[in-house]
Design a protein that fits this description.
The protein is an all-alpha fold. The protein is built from four helices and no strands. The protein has helices at residues 2-23, 35-41, 45-81, 87-132.
């Protein structure tokens, strides 16, 4: 009985631990200050200021959302370990956890969409190429 429960928990935790690996395939941090990328993309001072503002806003949201995910994960784990198991409470908490993860993914996507709008199509494609290499 304990072995299947452990396997289920590990399967559910995998997306939490896999997310940072996926996120590293895209530019992270303030890549627009890298002299090579800055020159390659011909970034203007106004664009750099816009990217800074966008980064700061998004980073603040992501910090809050990460905290929300961690709290939901903690509550989920606590419910999974409780005896007796309250299946309805576990399912509700799992839904909350997935909602928090989804909000975090949406914020990452929103950030990338805004970067794309600042750079335009060609420079955004070039940025993706740079990070694939």
């Amino acid at each position: 009985m304990l072995k299947p429960l452990i396997i289920i928990c590990l399967l559910l935790l995998t997306p939490v631990f896999a997310a940072p690996v996926d996120a590293q395939s895209e530019p992270s941090g303030k890549w627009w200050y890298d002299p090579g990328i800055k020159a390659e993309l011909k970034l203007q001072d106004g664009e750099i200021k816009r990217l800074d503002r966008l980064f700061n806003q998004s980073r603040r949201r992501l910090i809050d959302l990460k905290n929300k995910v961690e709290k939901a994960q903690f509550d989920y784990q606590r419910l999974m370990e409780a005896e007796p198991l309250d299946e309805k409470a576990v399912n509700r908490q799992f839904a909350q956890l997935e909602k928090a993860r989804s909000q975090m993914a949406s914020e990452r996507s929103r950030f990338l969409v805004e970067v794309r709008k600042i750079l335009g199509h060609q420079r955004f494609q070039r940025l993706k190429q740079i990070y694939r290499q």
